Amino acid sequence: MSMTAARSITGVLTKPLVGPSILSADFASLGDECQAVVDAGADLLHLDVMDGHFVPNLTMGPALCSSLRQRLPETLLDVHLMVTNPLGCVEPFAAAGADHITFHIEAEDDPETVINAIHSAGMTAGIAINPPTEWTAIEPYLGSVELALVMSVNPGFSGQSFIQEVLMKTAALRERLSDDQRLQMDGGVNLETADACREAGCDLLVAASAIFGTTDYGPVISSLRGS
Ligand code: DX5
Ligand code: ZN
Q1: Known active-site residue 186
Q2: Domains of the chain: which residue ranges?
């Protein structure tokens, strides 16, 4: 499946971007909830894939991604892999209609191979760091990816508190990225913390509980965007 301009994370989109993490959606009404956040102005949907090994939670897989692709053919699907074996997930999620895959440096000894596999499958690639990980851990790969992700909670669950200490390395990363590379923040992003994320240079904010914990998604998405 080829990507439309609207389905590229590096395309011309209104920045900063806001990506609801569907981890806090009502899974019994997932299609309707995803349609509603897209209609309310979400730029993409963020799918948190957890394997019960890299993180202590089990969430969603390619079948769910495929169902969302059928339901929302124009929506950019951003897959955040929190798994021990990211390479094994690349082809299944490509076949399921994902547009973008981010994996964790902490999970992978051979990041270049994973990045190449993601690109070969026709997707954009991102690399993530957990709160304790220095930004320099991903420095060698910044020239090869379209996105860097700074986790502002220890991954595993939505609804955790934002870890302020990550803002310094976020700003350092922004200085090393070009304008067409995204800098994403994920974890504890809400109406209180979003300004600091944007000030540190993030142009893609992910939020689960701050968005799905409300009933009127539009104003929250606008506020997270800073407008
Ligand atoms: C954390 C996930 C996040 C999480 C965010 O393990 O990667 O995407 O769902 O949830 P909130 O926005 O509620 O912190
Ligand atoms: Zn995530």
Answers
A1: yes
A2: 18-225
CA of 23 to the centre of ligand 1 (A): 7
Question: Does residue 207's CB lie within 6 angstroms of at least one atom of ligand 1?
Answer: yes
pLDDT > 50? residue 1: no
- pTM of full prediction above 0.90: yes
Please tell me if the CB atom of residue 208 comes closer than 6 angstroms to any atom of ligand 1: yes
| 116-154 pLDDT, tens digit each | 999 999 999 999 999 999 999 999 999 999 999 999 999
CA-based torsion, 157, 158, 159, 165: positive or negative: positive
CATH 3.10.290.10 applies to domain 18-225: no
Burial state string for 155-187 with b = 16 or more CB within 10 A and e = fewer than 16:
bbbbeeebbeebbebbeebbeebeeebbbbbbb
Q: Does 43 qualify as catalytic in the annotation? A: no
